[in-house]
Structures are given as structure tokens and as C-alpha cells.
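Hi V.,

You were right to ask for the full record rather than a summary. Here it is.
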Amino acid sequence: MTAEELGVRVQQVLDQLDEAGQREAAEELVRTLMDFYGAGLARAAELLPAEALGDELVAGLLVLHDLHPQDLGTRIGHALAAVPGWAVQRLDVERGELTLRQTDEGGGCGCGSAQDGERVEQLLACFAPELTAVELAKQPTLLQIGTRPVAEVR
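Predicted structure:
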């Protein structure tokens, strides 16, 4: 399972416990387990090689426990490096908002694909989960200008 799938599963279990009237106990258990794993991760993070910070799951866990040694901008750069053709247009750190624009690095028209946009959002969720909003700015549409029709000469 991916980190995202595991997060969804945790939420599903919490929802089931909520329906059974056990939400508070479940949340306390999750907090206690997070503290336990966080302490272990803090120790492990000190021993991690630098290349491990580029792994989606490792990065997500370190950020979740506020242990990641890289700043937000660097982690956003890691996410964007995995899907070339995107650049930061605006980052509001206080609000956790990010606007991206497509570049023409891919050699095409700069319009990209919906799958690229989804992949960027998934990577940002792992590398920079503190972002509260990600907007993928659309490139302006170019107006195609052709030649005028030739008038018939009579």
C-alpha cells in the first residue's frame, strides 16, 4: 500500500470507530502510537543517508513528525523534479498555498496532461503535506493567426 492509501485506511477505521461511539479512545490510541513511532523516527532520521530524503514515504513520515531536515521549498523542489515541466509561480508559506505553472521544458506546447497534474499533487502530498492548497495554473491559450483568404481577382 502507498502512504496515501494507508492514510485513507486509517481514516476509514476512525470513521467506523466514530460510528460505534469509540472515536475519542481511537484518537488517543493513534496519538500515542504517533508519539511512539515519532520517537523512533527521530533516532532513525539521524542515521539516514541524504538520498533517503528523496523517497516519498520516508519524506512523508519525517514531515509528519516534524523531523525533516529540509525546508519546504527544497521539499517542493524534490516533488517537482519527479515530474519535469512544472515551476513554482507563487508560494504563500503562512497560508500553505502553492501555485504552479507549467513550463515548456517538456518540449511541447506546455499544456501537459491531467495525469502529470495529478502526479504532482500526489508527490506534494508526500513531500510537503503542510500545504493546504495547490493550484495548477493553466497556460494561456495561444491565438492561432493564419493568412487572410486571397480575394478573387475579376
